[in-house]
Design a protein that fits this description.
The complex is a heterodimer of chains A (about 425) and B (about 210). Chain A is of the alpha+beta class and about 425 residues long. In chain A, about 65% of the residues lie in helices and about 10% in strands. The radius of gyration of chain A is 38 Å and the shape is elongated. Chain B contains 11 helices and 6 strands. In chain B, about 45% of the residues are buried. The longest helix of chain B is centred in the C-terminal third of the chain and has 14 residues. The chains are: A alpha+beta (about 425), B alpha/beta (about 210). At the A-B interface, helix 8, helix 9 and helix 10 of A face helix 1, helix 4 and helix 6 of B.
Chain lengths: ~425, ~210
Amino acid sequence: MGSGPRPGETEHVTSLDLPRPPLLRRVFGPLAARDFRAEYLWLWLAAPLTLFSLLSFLVVLALGLWLTPVLLGFLVLAGAVFYARGLGAAHRGLAKGLLGVSVPTPRRPELKPGLWSWVKARVGDPAGWRAAGYLLLRLPLTLAGLFTVFVATLYSLAATPYSFLWFPLGERRLPVFAIDADSWAGALAWSASGLLVLVALPRVTHAFVALDRLLIVGLLGERELTERVRDLEASRATAVEDAALRLRRIERDLHDGAQAQLVALAMKLGLAKDELADADLPQVKDLVTAAHTNAKQALTELRDLARGIHPAALDAGLDVALATLVATSGIDARVAVDLPRRPPPSLETIVYFSAAELLTNAAKHGGTTLVVVTEERDVLWLRVRDSGRGGARIVPGGGLAGVAERLRTVDGELTVTSPPGGPTEVTARVPLPR
Amino acid sequence: MRIVIAEDSTILRQGLVELLTFRGHEVLAAVKDADALRDAITAHTPDVSIVDIRMPPTHTDEGLRAAIALRRELPGCAILLFSQYVETKYAAQLLADRAGGVGYLLKDRVAEVSDFLDALRRVSEGETVLDPEVVSQLFSATRQTDALGALTPREREVLGLMAEGRSNSAIAAELFLSAGSVEKYVTSIFGKLGLPPSEGDNRRVLAVLRYLDS
């Protein structure tokens, strides 16, 4: 191969412009590559591992099935699936070490206290059964792969040097593969075929390992969609909870920090104002009075801001918070909260702000608003009903859409029933943790 | 006045001590939490205590709970609750013993030093003082209730000022009325709320409580 670009190829030169490796390295390079050594080793090591794994698993499984008439059998069965899970982990570890295939560990089944719950969870552990399936599918593959590679290795080792061995060998033949040639040209052909097999060996190995990788990713790694969904749900719940906690902390920091400072400032300015009342310093008096007014204004604004971040009344529960909200907003509304237990703080916050938005909306419609919060079978219902003129609907970017979006972060839903002429009933449905 | 302060924010605690001392009052103790408050009140028997609602450890309503417990234990112990926010439910719990000598003010009120000291004095003398914001919350919360429906707008105004702890003469000055007509409104309010005249001054507190209960 030429090392320089040919006339028609100049525009294909990439910015990297890697020099082409010499032919010899391109053909024989893979034989010396670390990847090949690792894959080759994998075929040799993983084959006995799989064979042993599958056989031992089948023995334990059979024992468990045989014992099922006795309750002990289920325990053994659970042990077998647990064992399969461990075998999967061993394969996964080896694959990671040698092949660099990194697959996430399957989720642990949810373990509840009690031996029977443990057995149920373990027997039903999908990761264990998939690991067993992996072993079953992999066994023929690994045996075929190992056999092919073994034969190819042996053949290339024997045939390649045959043309050199041809001279000293008395009988002109090798004890394997019936390698036999009458002429040196024939011996050369054997050598060429050996060399060909040797060159092909890394590619063949790679092909088998590629199949193996698919199996590993498919059965030992890729989790079922439901598990993934459960994972995402859990992480999202953590995120939502975390956000609520953080807002609460910000509010508390404001309360302990800026608000306290401002109250102290306003107090001192108030004192200064009082003390100056009899003094003949009109400009100073005006300044202090203005500063006093500003401080009080700032306090009010800061209080409203803190309330918007996390209403302190929520600490006492949704009923207190919603009653306070209605009282301070001046909206004509009645609130009825009937919850047998307190929802998690994050849900309380979301329900509170949803109710606040719905109340503001309802106030625009006119008439008395009724806010009802109840729990039915692990679902929290927030119903806001007004006797206004109706015709409300969820429009993108509108207040109701904002509430629907807020609720979606906790798998909640918003439905609006608002026939022309009213009444309007907006219902939020929020699933509660069991 | 001889005063005990319970406030967990250092800057506010010190500010209050400075303010009260400056105005010639005696601060017997300035503490950080509800337990220390109990000890201080038992040790010093102050004329009045200023208590922050949010205190350690949970920073929710420790002060309120401590105040309710203390008043049950030591009847007549005057307490002014101090809060960054006002909540009608807190006020209702605080007033539930119907004994007077109790106040519930927004912390902002301390900015108007004279008004604040006046409120503190009234609480120490056994009156009930509610923050104007609590009162307005009560009114909006009960706007639709039947008890209120019977009152005229003027009577509501008078009742609002009563709930803030104002005397009849103060209400008269505020509303530009004569003391006699305020007296008439008050009597009319008591009548509409069904409060018998025999209960004397305590009726003022009871009138406010009617709203808290509704």
